[in-house]
Specification:
about 325 residues; mainly alpha; two-stranded parallel sheet; about 55% helix; globular; binds tryptophanyl-5'AMP
Length: about 325
């Protein structure tokens, strides 16, 4: 982490609530890998967030390691960045409590992710699901980041984190840096293949999501079956959600513009286009999977990365937490 003081800082995280999708990759991970040389980076696996929805304990443990191995497989360098588990840095939960006293019930009630998740898990609308954005604000504000690279679904949470930080700063003087969301131009919202008006998600058990560990056959099959409209022309247009989504995926993986894609497939049908998208995605994933397989089989190395990462993260997080405790008036014996 050379030049730490002149580089700007970024922080981001993924919930280990299943296998990561190409949405997580295009909306978040890929950009983290691109930004790692220019920023001082903290990349967290947010396991505390994951238990807002019931998890099988053994699977959660395994998913934490799998998520870390995927961070490494997409090229995130553990020597340059702090890679850590949220539950290994107690300051996240501690700051979250303090911030919850500076967050309004009305603000949390307006969060669309809370509304969506409580509709999906109507038998378990727990308090953690409701206060989730406060913990996310703590994740962010502890590291005083300039930018938070995320997909567009997280924008509302980052805006809330900014509001909480401003409120706290106004009461107690400058304490938190006010972070900006950072979103990619293409790939900020990848949609479900089976329901292209909804976001692609880790928890989709059908054929709507392409997971980073899917094999070639599965990728080709899912894209072949992707819902598209009744037309046949490969053209980006209002209302053609399925084709627009496949064009976004193809563009994100190949770097081609929509015009270039339209030219490439002019006179050809959806079938040819879907095959090309399938091949492109499968090839990109094969490369990630080769690397993933090496990382996931070395648990000792993963543990060492987590230990180093949590020490680096704790150092910064503790500094912010101590400042907050002092400002709100907690007595310190030191
Ligand atoms: P999560 O785990 O749902 O997703 C991780 C990242 O992937 C992005 N993403 C997508 N991008 C494009 N298309 C999609 N279909 C898609 N699905 C997910 C998300 O925007 C995110 O960047 N609350 C967060 C995790 C979190 C966090 C944080 C993020 C907790 N604390 C602090 C940043 C900073 C979440 O549930 O992400």
């Amino acid at each position: 982490m050379e030049n730490m003081d002149i580089k700007k800082t970024i922080l981001s995280g993924v919930q280990p609530s299943g296998t990561l999708t190409i949405g997580n990759y295009l909306g978040a991970l890929r950009n983290w890998a691109k930004m790692q040389n220019d920023y001082n980076c903290y990349f967290c696996v947010v396991d505390l967030h994951a238990i807002t929805v019931r998890q099988v304990p053994a699977e959660l443990r395994q998913n934490c390691l799998k998520t870390l191995a995927l961070y490494l497989a997409v090229g995130i360098d553990p020597n340059k960045n702090a890679l850590f588990l949220q539950s290994h840095v107690p300051a996240h939960a501690e700051l979250s409590w303090v911030l919850s006293c500076y967050t309004m019930y009305g603000e949390l009630s307006r969060m669309t992710q809370f509304k969506d998740k409580s509709a999906k898990h109507s038998d378990n609308i727990n308090a953690g699901l409701f206060t989730y954005p406060v913990l996310m604000a703590a994740d962010i504000l502890l590291y005083q980041p300039d930018l938070v690279p995320v997909g567009s679904d997280q924008k509302q949470h980052i805006e809330l984190a900014r509001d909480i930080a401003n409120r706290f700063n106004n009461v107690y003087s400058e304490t938190f840096k006010i972070p900006e969301p950072y979103m990619p131009k293409i790939g900020t919202r990848i949609m479900s293949l089976s329901e292209p008006t909804s976001k692609m998600s880790k928890s989709d058990s059908g054929d709507g999501s392409i997971f980073l560990l899917d094999n070639k056959d599965a990728v080709i099959r899912k894209i072949k079956r992707a819902v598209t409209d009744s037309g046949s022309e490969v053209r980006y247009a209002e209302g053609k959600d399925g084709i627009n989504n496949l064009m976004s995926i193809y563009s994100a993986f190949t770097g081609k513009t929509f015009d270039e894609i339209e030219n490439e497939f002019s006179g050809k049908g959806y079938g040819d286009f879907k095959l090309a998208v399938g091949e492109t995605v499968a090839d990109a994933l094969a490369d990630i999977q080769d690397k993933y397989n090496v990382f996931i089989s070395d648990k000792e190395q993963l543990n060492k990365i987590l230990l180093d990462g949590s020490q680096k993260a704790s150092y910064t997080a503790e500094k912010t937490l101590r400042k907050v405790y002092r400002k709100v008036g907690f007595y310190s014996i030191k």
